[in-house]
Amino acid sequence: MVKDFFNKIMVALYRIPWIKNRWAQNFNAQESDTIPWTPLLKPLSHCKIALLTTGGVHLKNDTPFDMKDKYGDPTYRKIPSSVALKDITITHDYYNHKDADKDINLIFPIEALRDAQQKGLVGESAEFFYSFMGHIDKHHIKTLMEQTAKEVAHLLKKEKVDIAFLVPA
């Protein structure tokens, strides 16, 4: 309960520009010298699409992300692409998801994808979409990069996904 209160206070504090800017000045982000870019070899309307989010989205009957570990939860959740909106929820204490609770499409744009598919703009969905918790720090960064992200990349390749739409929270 105390941790929940602390996280809510921190989320509120980061809305204050000078606090957010001060934090950003001292934040050491992961850097890369290369961009993993693969050119598109077929029309969008023939591409298999997957959604990935860092918003802590998961099925209501699935295990929530771990909010007790202050360094985050480097695991992921599989979400069937056929999921009904009423069957998904958000477990994430490190950002204010009040608006996303009202409209999950803000961080998991599944209805926009389905609409584009109905219009023939993009191809079919992958069988599963994937969700991560965006707050990852310390030793969990290594786990995320060397294990979890590789597992999801393997699953996407196995399913022959052409485009992974990454949506941060």
Main sheet strand line-up: 3-5-1-6
Radius of gyration: 17 Å
E-strand count: 6
Task: Extract low-pLDDT stretches.
Answer: none
Can you describe this structure in just a few lines?
With 169 residues, the protein is of the alpha/beta class. Helix content is 33%, strand content 15%. The strands form 2 sheets. A 4-stranded mixed sheet has the order 3-5-1-6, covered by helices on one side. The chain has a two-stranded antiparallel ribbon with strand order 2-4.
Give structural notes:
By secondary structure, the protein is α/β, with parallel strands linked by helices. The protein has five helices and six strands.
Strand and helix map with partners:
Blueprint lengths: L1 H12 L3 H10 L22 E5 L3 E3 L16 E5 L7 E3 L7 H5 L7 H9 L9 E5 L6 H20 L4 E5 L2
Parallel strand pairs: 1-5, 1-6
Antiparallel strand pairs: 2-4, 3-5
List keywords for this structure.
single chain; 4-stranded mixed β-sheet; 33% helix; alpha/beta; 169 residues; 6 strands; two-stranded antiparallel ribbon
